[in-house]
Structure formats: structure tokens, C-alpha cells
């Protein structure tokens, strides 16, 4: 059985961590200053209920892939529905097929 190493924060470290984060300091800067990993700091801030994840970009990759598949279908002269399984391919692979 392996034991998991638990990173512990003192109450003073926790209050400093929360205060710096809410004042606008980056997670990376806080982690460096405290000698902790970025993941550890994010986890602690999450447990304290103050961490706000960076918004992710809207899912444009699927839409872009659909456009690439339509372009491939047009070049092959087949309906794009016949190539639906290509959506599992990488964007880079689809771009290669379009540019052949």
C-alpha cells in the first residue's frame, strides 16, 4: 500500500494565500513565493472556496472540424454525412486532407 503525501498549509499560510489571491496575485506568483506547486495552490484555493478557474475558449474546434469535413466531402464529391466518423480525427489530420 502506498501512502499519498499530503501538503499541509498552516492557518497563517492559508490566510496569506487567500488574501494574496483575492487581492489579484496570480496563482503562479503565489506558488513561487510560498514554495508550493501551482496545482497545490489551486487545490487549496478551491477548498477555501475562492478559486475562479480561467474561462476556457468556446468550443470552436468542433465547428472548425465540421467545416474541414465538409471541404473534404466537397473535394471527394460525396455527402459530408458519409464522412461523419472523421470528426474523431485531429484537426491537423483533417487540414492535411483538405490541402491534398
Number of helices: 5
Mean pLDDT over the full residue set: 85
Radius of gyration: 23 Å
Instruction: Kindly state the percentage of residues in helix.
Output: 55-70%
| Poorly predicted residue ranges | none
Integer tally of domains: 2
| Main sheet makeup | none
Structural write-up:
It contains 5 helices and no strands. Helices cover 55% and strands 0% of the residues. It is mainly alpha-helical and 100 residues long. The mean pLDDT is 85. The protein folds into 2 domains: 11-47; 60-98, no CATH class.
Summarize the structure.
This protein is mainly α. It contains five helices and no strands.
Layout of strands and helices, then pairs:
Blueprint: H1 11-22, H2 27-34, H3 38-47, H4 60-76, H5 91-98
Amino acid at each position: 500500500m502506498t501512502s499519498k503525501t499530503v501538503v499541509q498549509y498552516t492557518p497563517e499560510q492559508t490566510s496569506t494565500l487567500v488574501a494574496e489571491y483575492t487581492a489579484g496575485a496570480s496563482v503562479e506568483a503565489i506558488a513561487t513565493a510560498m514554495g508550493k506547486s501551482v496545482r497545490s495552490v489551486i487545490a487549496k484555493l478551491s477548498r477555501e472556496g475562492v478559486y475562479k478557474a480561467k474561462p476556457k475558449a468556446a468550443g470552436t474546434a468542433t465547428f472548425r472540424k465540421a467545416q474541414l469535413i465538409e471541404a473534404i466531402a466537397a473535394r471527394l464529391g460525396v455527402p459530408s454525412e458519409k464522412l461523419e466518423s472523421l470528426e474523431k480525427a485531429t484537426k491537423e489530420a483533417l487540414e492535411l486532407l483538405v490541402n491534398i
